[in-house]
Amino acid sequence: MSAPIARGDQLAPRSYGPFEAADLEAYAAASLDDNPLHLDPAIAAKAGLAAPPIHGMLIMACLEPYVRAWRPDASVAKIAAKFVEPVLADETFEITGKVVQAAPGAPAVLRLTARRGTTLVCLAEAFVAVPPA
C-alpha cells in the first residue's frame, strides 16, 4: 500500500550539476541536438554568455527522476515546463517541488521549480499518480 499524496506536500530539494563539456557533448549526441551554442564556448561568448548553456531538455530530464526519488511508486503521466533563464555549463541548479492539487482517484499536480541560486530557471508542472492506498 502507498501513502496518499496530499495538497501541500513538499519534495526535498535536490541539486544537479555542474555539467561539464563532456556531459553536454554526450547529451547532444543522444538527443541529436548539436546546436553549437551548447557546445562551443566561443559561440556562447558571442551570444553574451560566460559559458555554454546546458540544454533546456537536460534540465527537464532531471524532473522525472526527481519526482521518482520522492515517490518511487509514482507514475509520472505528464510534465510541462517553461524555461525562463539559462543554466551555464559550470553552474548548478536546485529542484524543489510542492503538491498543489490532490484528489482521490485523480493524478496529483506538482509544481516543480529549478533555481540557479535565487534565480528561477525552469517552472514545471508534473501530473503524478500513485497506486491506491
Low-confidence segments: none
Multimeric organization: single chain
Radius of gyration: 16 Å
Shape: elongated
Instruction: Write down the secondary-structure element order.
Output: EHHHHEEEE
**How far is it from the N-terminal to the C-terminal residue, by CA?**
5 Å
| Count of DSSP strands | 5
Largest β-sheet summary: 5 strands, antiparallel
What does this structure look like?
This protein is α+β, with helices and mostly antiparallel strands. The chain has four helices and five strands; from the N terminus they run E-H-H-H-H-E-E-E-E. It is elongated, with a radius of gyration of 16 Å. The model has no long low-confidence stretch (mean pLDDT 95).
Concise synopsis of the structure shown:
This protein is of the alpha+beta class.
Task: Set down the secondary structure blueprint.
Elements (H helix, E strand, L loop, with lengths): L9 E7 L4 H11 L9 H6 L9 H6 L1 H8 L4 E9 L9 E9 L6 E9 L2 E11 L4
Keywords for this entry:
single chain; 133 residues; alpha+beta; Thiol Ester Dehydrase, Chain A; 5-stranded antiparallel sheet; 4 helices
